[in-house]
Automatic annotation (TrEMBL):
PROSITE patterns assigned to the protein according to its UniProt record, in alphabetical order: ULP_PROTEASE
KW tRNA processing (keyword) present: no
Protein name per the record: Ubiquitin-like protease family profile domain-containing protein
Organism: Brassica cretica
Ubiquitin-like protease family profile domain segment(s): 1-82
Record's keyword terms, sorted: Hydrolase, Protease
Organism superkingdom: Eukaryota
Length: 131
């Protein structure tokens, strides 16, 4: 296979999500954590022992931070930006978390092949639900 890079969202202890970029040729992993205080460096170092022969770094400079609850959308935006060769935009900030989440939902809906079918359904069986 001709794969050099792998991007993945990581679910840490079912409480927090962050993004990783794995460079296979370099045997190196970059961690982009959007709430740095959520995982201590010691906790992240414990994971390193299961990663040999890969090295890792936790990038903190230039990584926009978010508030609790927005880590999932931020994680996906980090992956998208880096994969496309873009810097993380300055609009990735805690006050824009809700807007980013809504925009992602619209983008996903617009990518669905059956969306026009759903847009044109009459949904008659639900018309009187709230009357």
């Amino acid at each position: 296979m001709d794969v050099a890079d792998i991007y993945a969202p990581v679910n840490f202890k079912n409480q927090h999500r962050f993004a990783i970029w794995i460079s296979i040729p370099k045997r190196h992993i970059v961690v982009w954590d959007n709430i740095i205080k959520h995982i201590s460096p010691k906790e992240l170092d414990e994971v390193q022992y299961t990663l040999k022969p890969y090295t890792y770094e936790r990038q903190t400079v230039g990584v926009p931070q978010c508030r609790a609850g927005d880590c999932g959308p931020f994680t996906l935006k980090y992956i998208e930006c880096h994969a496309l060769g873009m810097e993380f935009p300055k609009v990735l900030c805690p006050r824009n978390g809700k807007t980013i989440r809504e925009k992602m939902a619209v983008d996903i809906f617009q990518e669905l092949p059956m969306r026009h079918e759903w847009e044109n359904q009459d949904n008659d069986e639900n018309l009187g639900t709230y009357e």
